[in-house]
Every structure is written in C-alpha cells, then in structure tokens.
Amino acid sequence: MSNETLRVKVGLIGDAVLMQVLEMPERFRGDFSFEASNGLEVESAHHAALNVGNADVIYLRGDDKDCDDYISGESCFGDEEARDLYGRVVVALREAKAEMESMVLEEDEPADTPGFPCAESCVI
Domains of the chain: which residue ranges? Predict the structure, then answer.
C-alpha cells in the first residue's frame, strides 16, 4: 500500500469546531469528492475550510497551496450543537480517509492482494 495518507486535526473549543489538514495525498489535491454516510460532503477545493453551517461541506487542501497550514473553524449555537458537529466532522473525515486509502489500494496493489489495514482514526 502507498504511504500516502490523510491526517486531519479536529478540535472542539467551547462552541467552536476547528480543523487543520496536517497531511493529504497530493494525487487527490483538487480532485476528490466524497459523500459521507452522515450527509457531509468532503471535497478538495481551493483551501481547507469547514462550511458545514450552510452547505454541509468539509473542504480539504486544494489549489491554493499558500493556505495549506490554515486552521479553519465553524462556530455553533452552544456547546451541544458544537459537540454534535464535531462528531459528524470526525465521522466524515474517517470515511473520506478510508475512501482515499481504498482508491490508492485499487490503483497500486495487485487485485489478488488480501485486504489492507483498517484506516486510522483522524488525529483529534
């Protein structure tokens, strides 16, 4: 399996959810779109951003490499809403990571290779 991986730090501070993309496979930069089981979209666009208040989209690194290290955040109406959003973001990113890894496996490994390790959890 390729050593390319998605690593994202997601944090919860009061009524805000923060996110920073730490690593992302270059092959998916600007060319990744995935819908998680909870309805959140995970896409690679211009730069990393949480846009879950209006559009239910988590943006990963994209064309604007100058913004790769930015920390993105989303404010919520209270701690309970923030905890719920935090959980939804973590689930969506875990599923997106697994999808990326399965795509790399399909392209890089022979078809008869048995399985691969489960995706690691997002850095939290």
Answer: 7-108
